[in-house]
Specification:
alpha/beta, eleven-stranded parallel β-sheet, binds uridine-diphosphate-N-acetylglucosamine, binds calcium ion
Amino acid sequence: MVAVAILAAGRGTRMKSDLPKVLHQLGGRSLVEWVLNSVQGLQPIRRLVIVGYRRELVIEALNQKADGSLLPPLEFVEQPEQLGTGHAAQQLLPYLDGFDGDLLVLNGDVPLLRPETLQSLLRTHQENQNAATLLAAHLPNPKGYGRVFCNGQNILQQIVEDRDCTPAQKQNRRINAGVYCFRWVELARILPKLTAENDQQEYYLTEAVNYMEPVMVVDVEDYQEILGINDRKQLAEAYSILQDRIKENWMKQGVTLVDPNSITIDDTVQLAADVVIEPQTHLRGHTRIEAGSRIGPGSLIENSQISQNVTVLYSVVTGSTIAENSRIGPYSHLRGHVEVGSACRIGNFVELKNTKLGDRTNVAHLSYLGDTTAGNQVNIGAGTITANYDGVKKHQTKIGDRTKTGSNSVLVAPLTIGEDVTIAAGSTVTEDVPNDALVIARPHQVVKPGWRLKS
Ligand code: UD1
Ligand code: CA
């Protein structure tokens, strides 16, 4: 029986940010969400998050992501003042009164942990019936981390924080990951006894660990997993490690990444086999791309669903869906709530917003369509613009199947244009048009023969 507690109350002074450190984003999720995800597989019976600095933001962010799964609901535990990781753990005492199982405690700033690593930590802890078991790693550069000192059998002697280390102790590269498994009754007995006798005058969770017995240390093989994020540089390092992991996974699943170093992919993105991602392309949020599609070069796709055999070239697509065999770009901007049917062509310098297009419809050059519904096989001529905003409200434009708008048409909404309509170039259309009609809405051309400017 295991409960989980995540320490997420600190400000993260070294981030130099108003935003609580644990809410900084890493590849589509906040740091604390990463930590929460990493414990899912342990089937914890309780999930506690210790919050303090700007706690309303942390609570709101985590409640929004409520996973709707069978996991127990998050319990938020307030640490009113941030007096250290031990003080944070002390806040759990009233919540876990009478709890008789193990407690996994994780720092909220360790986002790259693999679920398997936590499983093996828990296994070691339970098989050996330790009072506590903690994760450690040998770091090439251990600066800033607590150092772990053991006897030969991986039994902990003590943890000493970096700033409390003697120069000789600093030579030790074995560090405390900030991930611990405790027999709760043992920890609960010791927590009230913590002192703040250290360089920072804070209550350290590591001091509690020092008092317990036996405490076993489990080293992770891949030290990258336990990197703690304290500043922007470490955030960037973690991002690049995460990107390597994500991209390696997609390549294994049959996705071609042309020049992986110039591509970024959020962890929340889904790709089918035989997708090709060209250079300088960025895939964000809840994006899904189906087989045979080719995205990029130079594209940004965010929270969008892209069907099979679509191409997107030098374009930005946000909050939109694109059906199979359509071609987008170069230089198109789908700004949100856009639905493109199958085999459509959206071309150069076209902006679409809140617009739905049927199948085999083309908007090939220099257009803006907003709040528009167009049917099948519509051809939007070069430079066609919907005037959808009257300065106060947005209005809808409807365009029927097989209608063609001439170059440089202005469609003043609200407007309904029927099927099989042809609109002459340069028209400003302000009134509804029935099916099967030709619309010419511009002044006649006037030519005066023999006319010259008087000098
Ligand atoms: C901590 C460990 C250190 C370890 C390192 C691993 C202690 C004393 N030191 O140091 O041994 O090597 O993590 O990354 O534990 N927090 C609270 N309330 C507080 C203070 C912190 O909730 O009062 C939270 C923070 O939000 C953060 C986590 O605890 O998520 C760790 O705090 P941080 O200040 O980053 O600890 P480190 O100095 O990195
Ligand atoms: Ca830290």
